[in-house]
Design brief:
The protein is α+β, with helices and mostly antiparallel strands. It has one domain. It has six helices and three strands, in the order E-H-H-H-H-H-H-E-E. It is rod-shaped. The protein starts with a strand and ends with a strand.
Length: 201
């Protein structure tokens, strides 16, 4: 008995659409035809929206930090652009370098003392200006926390798109099985045979 398998090569394989959707969400659905184009466009638009949200969030974070550093330089006399995060936070919480270090000494937080150098000194012109800087820093941190969320959603969108497209491709890919069998009559083989075709979806 001889058998042959014939695949429908017009339909991309589940593996192909899975990989396409991992690269570009929705690509796999679009390659399966018009019936799944709407789903594919939804995944693509979602991905574009998340990319834009991430870019806008990154730009917003940078702008807020720059604005905050400008306030600190103008009203506290300290340049923070290349300084550590711990120093930037200290400047947002205390009116002066002296106040900060005295508080750390009183609390015996020796490891949190800031090195006494001219570039680390600050004195705010007013508490209101310090609060202004503090609020800008907090807004920048909020913008920064939104970016990992956007990245996670982008990954999830790709995985969902890839799995969905692979399932649809598997359901849409028929295979045709041909079976050739000789015909037996009274212990002898009759010339000719039977052809049986089975289509599986």
């Amino acid at each position: 008995q001889a058998q042959a398998q014939v695949q429908d090569f017009d339909t991309p394989s589940p593996r192909q659409v899975f990989l396409r959707s991992l690269v570009v969400p929705g690509w796999g659905h679009l390659s399966l035809g018009d019936a799944h184009a709407s789903r594919g466009r939804t995944h693509m638009i979602t991905d574009v929206g998340l990319v834009l949200a991430m870019v806008i969030g990154e730009q917003r974070q940078a702008r807020l930090l720059d604005d905050g550093f400008a306030v600190a330089e103008t009203y506290a006399g300290i340049y923070l652009t290349d300084k550590s995060r711990s120093l930037q936070l200290a400047v947002s919480d205390y009116d002066s370098f002296q106040e900060y270090n005295e508080t750390m000494l009183r609390l015996r937080n020796w490891n949190r003392l800031i090195v006494d150098t001219p570039e680390n000194h600050w004195t705010w012109a007013s508490s209101e200006r310090r609060v202004e800087y503090q609020e800008l820093r907090e807004q920048a941190d909020q913008a920064g926390r939104a970016m990992p969320i956007a990245i996670s959603l982008m990954v999830a969108n790709r995985v969902v798109s890839a799995l969905s497209a692979a399932r649809l491709a598997r359901e849409a890919s028929p295979s045709v099985s041909l079976s050739l069998s000789p015909v037996y009559m009274q212990g002898a083989v009759q010339e000719g045979g039977q052809v049986r075709a089975t289509v599986r979806f």
